[in-house]
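Kindly inspect this today.
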Amino acid sequence: MKSMRIAELLRTPGDGRDVVVKGWVRTKRGNKNVAFIAMNDGSCVSNIQIVVDLASFDESLLKQITTGACIRVDGRLVESLGSGQGVEVQASKIEIYGTADPETYPLQKKGHSLEFLRDIAYLRPRTNTFGAILRIRHAMAYAIHKYFNDRGFYYLHTPLITGSDAEGAGAMFQVTTLDLENLPRTEEGKVDYTQDFFGKECNLTVSGQLEGELGALSIGQIYTFGPTFRAENSNTPRHLAEFWMIEPEMAFYELEDNMNLAEDFLKYLVRYALENCKEDLEFMNKMWDNELIDRLKFVVENDFCRVDYTEAIGILKASGRKFEFPCDWGCDLQSEHERYLVEEHFKRPVILINYPKEIKAFYMKQNDDGKTVRAMDVLFPKIGEIIGGSEREADYGKLSARVKELGININDIWWYLDTRRWGSAPHSGFGLGFERLLLFVTGMTNIRDVIPFPRTPKNAEF
């Protein structure tokens, strides 16, 4: 007989049908006549109760059924007499796939801290919290692909190994096959990368955007969705060394089109979570953030306010609020500034536009004032910036001049500049950090808790 997932069983009427269910034991309790086993297979937050008539089973078998053990149960699905569940399984046969020593199994007890669970990332998906997070993560990944596919976008796989730095960040992981204990040197004493695998210095990508623009200027509308890497030595709740990015790029989109897409995209994702992750969101709302669902509805139900950067600086300076970081024209806004605008001043999501060019990337389209660029940042409650994007500079002369002004090596991005020489077109795009989205959707506060295996300084264990 084919086994059924617990999520499906819990939706099935308890009419006495024979079923097979497989999963991991969460708890076992009972008395001298009957045992009650709570079992979960990861398909939902809820457990299914297995009722075991002790007289019908060998005692040595039952002793092996402890928290963490993996078992198969054959039995009858019936209506439950207890509270908290609609159906339960009356066991007729139990097979143990794998035992879990109660003296050493790390999840033997409930109530472990998130810090403790990060140290056993290979087991934490078995907890209710991380099971819910991973199911929500899956749902959001599916929704992203569905959104773009349904709107005629093409999924472009951009390279993970690159010879360019899209943002001038400088903090990149180097990729090399050279012998680190016997590096070849040039006459000037520098590392001779012509002898490396790719014949030049290469790194793991920080963004697929530049290559994404090539796709947009060829097939119109593309999106990337893949891992990106930054070698910043940052041990904060907001930083990872490996994380996932969604980066759409669209030919013939100007700044207004870009803002419209970003707002529609985010509302679609949040609405999808509310409609398709109801049980998991209710669990996260109850256990971790009792304002979570209200905050998600807040995003869906409110139009995003569009505000010029200069106006925003004026609002912040006139607020009377003593911010930790000062905010004058030309500064890059901090999370505290962004959250004030969203949560207290406008009381709805905000899209800030027209930032000073000196604090934004070289590829952003310059405004006629010579001081600002057509950038946009989407700001959300609780987390601040969730999307960053811009209309891209389409003029070859202006882009080349900006590259030289910033001292960027043209030899690394000559191909990017060439797209402005042959058939240049207005185009725009933005980037959404997947884990940043998941922080918002799950209510978690540490980015390490919304990715299965966090990569951070001194941590690449699992």
In short: The first strand starts at residue 15 and ends at 30. The two ends are 36 Å apart (CA to CA). Residues 439 and 445 are 6 Å apart (CA to CA). The mean pLDDT is 95.
